[in-house]
Amino acid sequence: MRRPLATAIVALAVAGTVTAPAAEAAEPTLKAVSLAGTVALSNCSGSLVRFPNSVDTDPALVLSNGHCSSLMAPGVVMTNRFANRPFYLLDASGAQVATLNAAKLAYGTMTDTDVAIYELTTTYEAIKSSYGVSALTVRDTHPAVGTAVTVASGAWKKLLDCNVDGFVHRLKEGEWTWKDSVRYTSACQTIGGTSGSPVIDQATGEIVAVHNTGNENGGSCTRDNPCEVDEKGNVTVRKGINYGQQTYQIPACFTTGNQLDLNAAGCTLPKP
After folding, report:
1. How far is CA 232 from the centre of its chain?
2. Which residue of 20, 130, 207, 242 has the fewest C-beta atoms within 10 A of its own C-beta?
3. Please, where in the chain does CATH 2.40.10.10 lie?
4. Domain spanning 38-137+249-260: which CATH class is it, in words?
């Protein structure tokens, strides 16, 4: 997991200004990805999201990491918990246009994946009407190796472009294990505070993963130094490489009115 945003800011102040790596040239057919719909949290990044079957009058949702909510022990799953948390909504230019508020933490876990989904006190329709910002759609299909993606950080107002380099059978970090994680090519050099950023397919503008960690100094399977474990148990460490957790399995678990239903057909998210 990446260091909290406040810690990262202190580190930058000590080390000097850090600039994002230059974005790779986009193919002419790719959509221009912006910061519209991203949010900043007190310690992380996130995004205003909807699912393929969401409607404009549904309560809006915010996607981030489970560890941006709390460091939940393996096996812990939180559902429909009261949450009084603000999210700072950005437009395409990165300007803050609104403060949105959570009504509850609809779902949160660090088991198998690292995700938090908050229900807001307002609807997509109201947000679009008042602030001109639309939610990003969470795609319900698995991405492919080579897909051009952007890690869009609302906290840092930065866009990091790279590609899906591959998928990790098991990604272990400290006491946590995540399944079928996305590994990025080295161009996406994330820092503290980028946790929870949407990973956006540049061709469609849809979310295919949520960024959550990277190997900072070459350690093996420790906090801030995740390791890859293959089907045979072989461990690989990739210093400086960063990872996200796939999100295609989330839409099946939210039904009419954007309400969580972990017993819905096709829902494979961990249950309490």
Report:
1. 28
2. 130
3. 26-32+139-246
4. mainly beta
